[in-house]
Design goal:
6-stranded parallel sheet; globular; alpha/beta; 250 residues
């Protein structure tokens, strides 16, 4: 893709973060919640994760499981009655970190006025805290993810509608104003699941460059069939940044 003035980047959260840590994992693994919560949260994940990653199953089955997983997880979080101010401590005590080179990528996009959409089935509040901690939450960045709801005392009580899961991204994107408001024809798409390719499915575009992060070796072959390029072995953003530098230099 060319013409930096006509490019927008669409990025999944997991492609920017280390596979060891996720938005939900930041809260789920917080030791302050006690053994009973941790065991329940782990049991929920262990039940639904195999369905989530089994692409041989009908999509409707995976979508239903993802939604049930989300509802159970949010309910378990609300039961702990934590405040938004606790998220920073949760993040510090978690394994959730940005991949190497992500800050440079976001700085490049900001410098060259390239809009970046972070589109995630994760938690908006956690993503915001993480970007602010890394000093890279720039004005050109928009986050489309699950926003937690808080009561008048600032206690987490649920999540705003619509719930976003990995398998519902296309439906959510079709209702989002982002793709119509940001009028750029070329899309630079980064994801770490095949379902991430749906992120740009509702946007009209002249050119699309998709890059997949194959965090597991077993995914590489199938990813190569669908993404334009695939990075394996838990890579950083060095190659992504080189591509972006070439684009903005033209």
């Amino acid at each position: 893709i060319t013409e930096k003035e006509n490019i927008k980047a669409v990025v999944s959260t997991q492609s920017t973060g280390e596979p060891a840590g996720t938005c939900f994992g930041v809260i789920r693994a917080y030791p302050g919640f006690g053994k009973e919560f941790l065991e329940k949260a782990e049991a929920i994940k262990n039940h639904h994760l195999p369905i989530h990653v089994d692409f041989s199953l009908p999509e409707a089955v995976r979508q239903a499981s993802d939604l049930e997983w989300m509802k159970k997880t949010i309910s378990s979080f609300a039961g702990e009655r934590f405040s938004r101010s606790l998220l920073t401590e949760m993040l510090h005590r978690s394994q959730c970190r940005l991949r190497s080179g992500v800050v440079e990528f976001l700085e490049l996009a900001h410098t060259h006025e390239i809009p970046v959409l972070i589109f995630s089935g994760g938690i908006w509040d956690v993503i915001e805290v993480l970007l602010k901690e890394e000093n890279c939450y720039f004005p050109n960045i928009q986050i489309l993810a699950n926003r937690l709801k808080y009561d008048s005392d600032g206690i987490m009580v649920g999540v705003e509608d619509p719930m976003i899961t990995a398998s519902s991204k296309l439906a959510v994107a079709q209702k989002s104003s982002y793709f119509s408001e940001v009028q750029r024809d070329n899309i630079f798409l980064l994801g770490d699941m095949l379902s991430d390719l749906k992120m740009a499915g509702c946007a009209k575009h002249s050119e699309l460059l998709s890059i997949g992060f194959a965090n597991n070796a077993k995914d590489e072959e199938s990813y190569q069939e669908h993404f334009d390029a695939v990075l394996g072995g838990n890579p950083g953003f060095d190659e992504i940044n080189e591509i972006l530098k070439k684009i903005v230099a033209e």
